[in-house]
Specification:
Shape: globular
Order of helices and strands: HEEHEHEHEHEHEHEHEHHEH
Strand content: 5-15%
Structural class: alpha/beta
Length: 369
C-alpha cells in the first residue's frame, strides 16, 4: 500500500504540470506535416539475443518508419525545423553533415518536397557503400553540395548564406549538423509521450545528441524512471557532456519562451548516460561489434547500418552478455531510414572530390548503384 503525504502529492502535481508545459509548448510550434506518427513499437526477438532471456523483454521503436518518403529520426526534428522555416517565409535551407549523412539527405528529400532550395556542407568520412549511395541520391534530388576539408563548415556556410540572402531577399534556414537544436530536443521529448508504458532503459545512437537528450528530457518531464543509454557514434568534439548541457539550457529557454512559467529542468534530473565504448577507431569506421549487430538485426527482419544504429544495438548485445539487463524492459530506438532511397543521379555531376570519393567506395565495396 502506498501512502501519499502532502509532500508526495506536491511531487505528483509537479511532474504532471511539467508534462503539460511540454505539451503546451509543442502545441504552439508550427509543423511541416512531413512525419507519419506515432511510429510502432514491436517485440524484438528477446530470445535471439544472448542474456535477454533472463526475465528481460526487448522491443524496438520503429522510427525508421517516420515517413514513407524518407524516414529515420531526422524526420521528427525536421517536422518542427522546416515548419518554422516555412512559417518564417524562408526559401532555402543550408545544413551540414558527413558525406554519407542521413540527416543531410533527409533534409534534402523533405525540404525539396516542400519547395525549398537545399544546400549541404559536407565533411569527409571513411569510405562506405552507403555514403556513396547517399551522395548519388543528392545528385538525383538536385542538392547543391559543398565539400569542405574538415568538420567545421561554418566559413563555407556563411558564404552560401550571403549568396542566398542576396538572391532570395530573405535569409535561408540554417539547420545544424544532425538537425540538432532545441526544436530537435523537443521533437524527441514528444516522442516519449507516444509510449504506452515507460521502459526501464532506452538504447539509442548519439550523434549530435538531439535525439538522445530529447528522450531523456521527455522521460524526466513525464516522471518516467527510464534511463537513456546514449551510444556515442561521432567524434568526441561533437558529442560530449558540454554539448548536452548547452542543449538542455537552450531547450529549457525555448520552452519558457512558449510557456513562461515553466519551472525548468536540470541535468541532475535526467537519467542519461553518454557512453564511448562502442565508437571504435573513427567516425563511420565499421567495427566487428557493429557488423555483428547489423547481422543479428537482419536475421530478425530489421535493416540497420554500421555507423549509428549498429553501434547502438551492439551496446545492447554487449550489456546483455554481461548480464546487465536481466529482468528489464529494454527499448531499442531505431533511428535509421527504411524507406526506399531517392533515385540516384549522374556521378559526373558531383564536385571533383566527391567523384574521387565515390571511386574509392566502388573500389572497396563494389558499385552501389
Amino acid at each position: 500500500m502506498v501512502t501519499l503525504n502532502a509532500a508526495g502529492c506536491a511531487i505528483v502535481h509537479e511532474v504532471a504540470s511539467r508534462a503539460s508545459y511540454l505539451r503546451s509548448a509543442l502545441a504552439a510550434l508550427p509543423r511541416a506535416g512531413i512525419a507519419d506518427l506515432p511510429t510502432p513499437v514491436e517485440r524484438f526477438a528477446p530470445d535471439g539475443f544472448p542474456g535477454l532471456s533472463e526475465g528481460a523483454t526487448a522491443e524496438i521503436k520503429r522510427d525508421d518508419r517516420t515517413s514513407a518518403l524518407y524516414g529515420g529520426n531526422k524526420v521528427r526534428k525536421l517536422d518542427l525545423i522546416l515548419g518554422e522555416a516555412l512559417a518564417q517565409g524562408r526559401r532555402a535551407v543550408v545544413t551540414f553533415g558527413a558525406y554519407g549523412s542521413n540527416h543531410a539527405l533527409a533534409t534534402a528529400v523533405h525540404a525539396t518536397a516542400l519547395g525549398l532550395e537545399t544546400h549541404a556542407v559536407l565533411s569527409p568520412q571513411a569510405p562506405t557503400g552507403a555514403a556513396s549511395a547517399t551522395l548519388l541520391a543528392h545528385v538525383g534530388l538536385g542538392t547543391s553540395m559543398h565539400p569542405v576539408d574538415g568538420w567545421d563548415g561554418v566559413r563555407e556556410a556563411v558564404r552560401i548564406e550571403r549568396g542566398l540572402a542576396r538572391r532570395h531577399g530573405v535569409e535561408p534556414c540554417v539547420i545544424p549538423m544532425g538537425g540538432t537544436n532545441a526544436l530537435a530536443v523537443l521533437a524527441y521529448a514528444e516522442a516519449v509521450l507516444e509510449l504506452d508504458a515507460p521502459p526501464d532503459v532506452i538504447y539509442v545512437a548519439a550523434g549530435t545528441l538531439g535525439t538522445a537528450l530529447g528522450l531523456a528530457v521527455g522521460a524526466a518531464l513525464a516522471g518516467a524512471p527510464t534511463r537513456v543509454e546514449a551510444v556515442r557514434v561521432t567524434p568526441e568534439a561533437i558529442c560530449n557532456h558540454a554539448v548536452v548541457e548547452r542543449l538542455l539550457a537552450e531547450t529549457v529557454a525555448k520552452v519558457r519562451s512558449l510557456a513562461p512559467t515553466f519551472p525548468g529542468l536540470s541535468m541532475g534530473e535526467l537519467r542519461f548516460r553518454l557512453r564511448d565504448d562502442l565508437f571504435g577507431p573513427g567516425y563511420a569506421v565499421v567495427t566487428p561489434e557493429s557488423e555483428a549487430a547489423v547481422d543479428a538485426a537482419r536475421a530478425e527482419g530489421v535493416e540497420l547500418e554500421t555507423t549509428y544504429t549498429g553501434k547502438a544495438l551492439a551496446a545492447i548485445l554487449m550489456d546483455a552478455r554481461r548480464g546487465g539487463l536481466s529482468g528489464q524492459r529494454v527499448l531499442f530506438w531505431d533511428t535509421y531510414n527504411s524507406a526506399a532511397m531517392p533515385a540516384p543521379g549522374d556521378p559526373g555531376a558531383l564536385p571533383a572530390v566527391l567523384r574521387e570519393y565515390i571511386g574509392e567506395c566502388d573500389r572497396l565495396f563494389g558499385r552501389t548503384r
